[in-house]
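Hey L., structure's done. Input below.
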Amino acid sequence: DFVTAPELSPLFGQALAAQLRQALDATGTDELWEFGAGSGALAAQLLGALGDRVRRYRIVEVSGGLRARQSTRLQPWADRVEWVDALPDRFSGVLVGNEVLDAMPVQLLAYDGQQWFERGVALRDGWLAHEDRPTALRPPAERSVFLPGAVTEIHAQAEAFVRTLAERLQRGAAFFIDYGFPEHEYYHPQRHGGTLMCHRAHQADTDALADPGCKDITAHVNFSAVALAAQDAGLQVLGYTSQGRFLINCGLPQLMAAADVRAQAA
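Output:
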């Protein structure tokens, strides 16, 4: 329902591979793990760029349809690619999640100027409708000012996912590429409508209750909360930067210089 960066250009994966090679060397591991591999475009780029440095490429994929597409696309590396339904209790390797955290369910909170409500879904006369109920849940930004009518999100599932990684990762590193903000920007008063968005056939809208099951629902990531959850669970946060700076630092300009005009435009 929307195009991700690896599908726009193979240079994305080739630049990312430079960072992943460094992480594999630093951790002394030879396995890559990818969560939610989509069409398999990024996996193909990474396997092609890293070659024999990757002994095993494991994909955690919950969609049977996408798994079939990935299997077809990754046939040249069939001897190294493996699909798993869940994380093992203990594992080592370098992890990649491209637009994974923003696909995890969020809880919607609404503020009426006096108290907070959790926004849920009710069935009224055969139609889905929003329904708010009082809650003890709060956004994590204690110093933020929320105006009456504000709606925002909290990310309990994404934070729990990071804690699970911390519990089970014996040696390695994890890289998450996503849309989002640090906390002070995420809960800024001007972002009073929250970040929840829907995508269907490359069209965006904000009505999550229209055509349920037929479109992607996404919310931006609170990177501060993800980082704190990781640190509290025993991981070390290595860095945080914009995707543009990350790709430039990983050698994207040099890759572009060697590419043709069509590839540079993409």
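The first helix runs from residue 5 to 8. The chain is about 35% helix and 25% strand.

-- N.
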